[in-house]
Amino acid sequence: MSAFNKRGLIFAFNCYLAVVMALFVAYSLNLTNPVWAVLTVFITSQPFAGAIWSKALYRVMGTLIGAAAALVIIPNFVNTPILLVCVIASWVGFCLYISLLDRTPRSYIIMLAGYTAALVGLPEVVNPSGLFDNAIARVEEITIGVLCASLTHSLIFPLSVESVVLAKINKTLSDGKNWLVSALEAEPEIAARRARRRIALDLTELTILGTNFKFEVIASRQYINAIRALEERLILLLPMIYAVEDRLEALRNFQGIPDETDQLVKTIKTWVLEHDINNIEVNKNLIELTKGVEQQQITAMMDRCRAIAVTHAASTSWQDILELNLVTRLIDLIQLWADCLALYSVVLEPHKKPSPILKAIVSINRNRPLHIDKGLAAYSGFTTVVATIVCAAFVMATEWTQGASAVSLTAVMCCIFATSDNPTVMQKKMFIATLIAFPVSLLYVFGIFPAINSFPMLAVVLFPLIMLIGVYLANPPTMFSALSIGMIVVPGIGFTSVPHTDFIAFFMGNLIATIGVLMALVVTLLIRVISTETSIHRILRAGWKELSNHAIGPYHHYQVTWASVMLDRLGLLIPRVVTAPDSEQSKIDKALRGLPIGFNILDLRVAKRDMPQSIQDKINQLMQKLSRYFLSMTHHGYRQPRIELLEDIDVIINDILQIRSLAAADRSSLFAEDPRLHGLIASVGLRRNLFPHAMAFEAIAFPEGKSTS
User: Fold this and answer.
1) Mean per-residue pLDDT over the chain, rounded
2) Which DSSP category does 495 fall into?
3) Domain total for the chain?
4) Residue 286: what pLDDT?
5) pTM tops 0.90
6) Residues 194 and 339 in one domain
7) Which secondary-structure segment (H or E) carries 496?
8) How far apart are CA 689 and CA 693, in angstroms?
9) CA triplet 341, 343, 346: central angle to 5 degrees?
10) What DSSP letter does each residue of 199-234 carry, written as one string?
């Protein structure tokens, strides 16, 4: 799609108005560096109103912290330049490390605090007496830029993030429905695989969008909580779909699905298909799951599941055990999907009073945890420290008086691309932007500005430049290139009250950007780049390490936390695997398999607490072996589990089946918090997750009178 569309032109015009306003205010107040206000307009401008205000707030907060840090560091180390550079570099690296531990837009605060100290402090090393004024000026000018950008984009045809959030929710629910129907119909695996991969990406994007959404005027606490609760249900839904899909496949491959269960599965599929997720307007009128016929249908399906389960509770047949496992998971699946649709109705009608049950759900504040790679964060921080020191050493060795700004820019270039496996890809684009920006700056400074003598004329001559940058800034494929050129052109032009007359000074000033970017590029290329395969292995290794900890470490009561992080890792794997060799493709499905494995491990550990001591001991031994198995993969990569794990699981299943109360005549409380039933479900699930192609389980009967009590 062309960048010159209606939305892009509106965005560009808002950017232009914000730039003109920022320059007018800065000139009226006789501020020393209007460049910072103009740059802030480009950096802060976002397509959505909520994102603009969030970034505006984060930028002001980061600038205040960074300026305060510069005021503390520079005066104390100004007489020891080498030590000063090391302290500034360490501050930038430390702030970058902390910021990378938060993958939401909030991380911008700490990252900005890091390199703002360098931007404010280093150019003033030669004349420290101007440090305080420079720090105050930067805060003032950035605040001006922030307010101008926020006001124009919020007041002139603002675009709410609500439509994007609704579209993302709609797409995620649609993919969940497609996978669910595919699982119940036993469609080809490839269809389900595509759906599950998209869900992982969509959920992470939804989480990040939600961080900015709270800045929207329309975003009530109930609305945001409903979205978070829906995310939570979708996260829990995925391992349930995986389990149902697997148990149906196991039954089909063993002796077939019994007629009664097959009819139940078809009924559930029909119920799922009744709701047209893709039609938002229809759903506003149809989704009412907390009362009436819909709730009766849900209850009836669950009752049918329980009735089938009761008939198989005492059986030791593998067919019956699989069926018991299936219908138990179907109960969870029905409830989760019903919750998803009910919460979806709250999101679609945020001003409608929810039922008491839904009101209790949406009254809880939730925060979704995401995957964090502390090692890579530290590595990125170290790279920034090294690059900053190397550039400073070059400046000192050449006695370049303007070089302090190049050092600051090196720190900035290392920070803003630190989330990438290979930051040099973007740094190269930034370097190209410096080459493109130079002739543009030259044209304005020496060709256009000498011919104008008033602010209105300045506003007129800036119109084509700002509009062109703004149009491409609004277009996602060209956004970064446009921002890069803007970040170089604006300082090149200068916007000072006294126009440039010395070409050599102008050239040396523009050379700062080239040297700063080049230094960051070279150092990053030498020590920071990691391959796609290495990145994939690091993500997988984090999952295996957590599985190892789950087996023997402290129990995590809130399972959705574990599922959330695992799904986020899957979302991180998908774009990397696309560019990786074919041998890496299967790693996505192996990563997804870890999700139900983790759930079953946690369920089995909880269920064992009320079991006989002999079974507890066997489960503990199994967990020790599982922990060692997953830990070994963190060092050697994926490997098939040993057959002895299958034998241990079968022994545990056999012992659980012999517990008398599980086979009791009166099984009315079968679905209460019965650890034996949950232990059986979890151990069978673990068997299927680890050994999907193993032979059918065969129970070994205990001698009469020896059953476990």
Assistant:
1) 83
2) -
3) 3
4) 46
5) no
6) yes
7) none
8) 10
9) 115
10) HHHHHHHHHHHHHHHTTSTT--HHHHHHHHHHHHHH
